[in-house]
Write a structure and sequence with these properties.
By secondary structure, the protein is mainly α. The chain contains 17 helices and no strands. The N terminus is likely disordered.
Amino acid sequence: MTDAATGPRNARLPFLFIVLTVMIEAIGIGLILPVMPDLLKEVQGVGLSEAAVWGGVLASVYALMQFLFSPTIGNLSDRFGRRPVLLLSMAVICADYVLMAFAHTIWLLLLGRIIAGIAAATMAAATAFMADISAPEKKAQNFGLLSAGFGFGFVLGPALGGILAEWGPRAPFWAAAVISGANLVLGLIVLPETLRKRRAFDWRRANPLGSLVAIKALPGVSALLTVWFFYQVANWVYPAVWAYFTQAAFGWDARMVGISLAVYGVSMVVVQGGLIRVIIPKLGERRTLAWFLPYNAVILLCVAFVPYGWLMLALTPLSALGAVVAPAVQGVTSRAADDDQQGELQGVLASITAVAAIVSPLLMTQVFNLANDGGAHFPGAPFLVASGLMAISWLLFRRAA
């Protein structure tokens, strides 16, 4: 949708709002990461190792809820419009942070993560909104800006969370509630409705499998969904094992791990907020995939065997450059879908990403454990596995091209 009131000339505030929404979601996630161990120890009265077990449960539940509800949210946005779905979800997220701030039992924390996972599925509606207001040739670039907003938020979130933790483990939740509430007010003021063509809501399509069946019927999309899955599983190796890998390989402490994550986050913002607007228009979406999928496989292989910490820091911006793959896939698939299927399509992509977020940490941490237990010492083993998965993604794309 480029000719409506929310077209390119008049869409600056809504455009900014959507990017801010994604960024604030990432800030909220990162904001609470530094205090979760202390909060879980306080609530459960347990040591750090047991708190980590519960932390894994909370993280898995969050990702599972995103998987289950992303297609539903996407379909609801195709039926009722982007505006009501986004605003309602933001209100729920704000209330959920308040619940988490008050939670004094593990079951309330678990309920909070369930609610947060469902509400966070609004990424599908946000991406569909971006598709509505973007010209076809600009979609991949604008999807990249959404990813850049998320990356920037994830840089700010942990840093802010660490500072706020001085006021206790619940302070970041209150801060996240205030930030989310302010964004909700902004949305009420500036967010228009962008959906022109509405589609009847169908429960058979408003679930991960039903939506997948409908979207797979689009020409060329089925193979790209498989490419997307292997790419996401491989790429999730970074958040899954980074802290463990860098400590075992280079002896980095928490401060150095934080610095490296900030370097990666800033690099992601530069790539997806700037370089992507040069790379994708110049190469085209499909050539971008053909070049950067194998590029990612090589970078992951280098990370697996890198011998020095300073060299790892030098590789970090190069690894971030491979992030151009995600908006390129979104751009190619978005072109294959009708206007009234954009929400459903983005919901399916979000669900596949959520599955990867469940599968990859379990796989990569187990590989790390096996490769560094009983006298063995190969910290980079998960990255070697990830390189193989990225190579599979590239081969699948070549076969489908």
